[in-house]
Please model this.
Amino acid sequence: MDKVEFDQTVGLIEQKLISELLNDPLVIEDAILKLDPIDFINKEMAIIFGAITTLHRNGKHVDEHTVNEFIYDHNELHFEDYPAVIKTLVNKFTTSVEVDDHIELIKNASIKRQMDQFANDLVATKIDFTDFNEQVYQLQQRFMNIINSKKSTEIKSIEEIAKDFQEKLNQIYNQIGELSGTTSGYTQIDKITNGFQPGDLIILAARPGMGKTALALNFLLNAANTIQQAKRQDPNNKDVVVMFSLEMGADQIFQRLVSCSSMVDVSMTRKGKMESIDLESLTTAIQEVSELPILIDDASDNSVLDIQSKIKQTAINRNIKLVVVDYLGLIKSTSHNYQQNRQQEVSNITRMLKHIAKTNKVPIITVAQLSRKIEERRADNRRPILSDLRESGAIEQDADIVSFIYQEDFENGEESLLSNQNGPANPTVLVEYIIAKHRNGPVGNVRLNFMREFSKFIDRGSTNTENA
Model:
């Protein structure tokens, strides 16, 4: 069948479907859940389908007369002799039991047309190397929109849901106290979260200097060490953790991981103050860290689609147990609507990050900044709350866990802790890891010790929790 014959066949099926919708309102819901007017090759059928969709969604009855009236009231929808066309459709075809087949064929034909057009446009695209990344983003977004346009209406019965839930319960029971998610490396945090769960979006936010990137790296390192231990029992284990660093380079990330593992301040090596014992410790740590199942991407211009693409590519041959993104404010938006404000951009980014986590069944920890408004509060009232998040509505809505780092002593000793260059820095700082939102479990505060020189957090051993 050539293209002309195929289009004619699809056009005839579109007429049959419209006839079915006009004669049997019971089948309308399924059609409008799966199709849009743009899916129709025949413009007249697209207009009629759009009218049917609007009427139905507004709770109006759909038949020949109401569709006629709707088109009559909207001049931009008029086409030649539309009352006669609608009457013919009502009378020409008898209702059939092939509605689902018709819907499927129309949708598939629409996707094929869009893919054909996309392929033609791709071939005809003139590469502008001064704006190459922008072109790639636009093409990637367009392709993703096409392949995601097939709406899923699969609805599970309560029996299927119950079966899935029972399997999860059995799996948890058989783990005999093991975590169901990826360990944070901190006993009290894992008690609250049961590990970072596959599909969860976890926000880790704090004011500058609190150690949010350091804690995210500790989570990454602890998970990687746990995987490495498992690899000793199973050499075929393909688990990995992934870091997207939009701010620091891969070499800086590696230095922090080595410092954390060796308990040696790597920055001192640049000042010529390294002892032989430090060199030995660093050399051992370098070897140990280099063998860990950690992947680092330090592209500073990553968009959320870039992150999605790289995760999917990595997941082909590896099993991703944890993703860390540092940080939210630097992720490039894939939207090219310059009238869109930053809050809308962040909403799109966090929604997409949640989608990536859910579809790839991997926990994603995303580092974020707090709003400057927290600085306006009294020094004794700067414990972070959900409303302190920048663009908090979007972030809070999409995240499964929202967590903060808070240092009570920071308010009284900020200068000595952060910029004391004349004397020794405080070796250990007491911090709180605050879980302010937990969609599927309790919230609570965990106390940790932060050794700033080594970018290392250590369990302190106490926690306060309450049910969400």
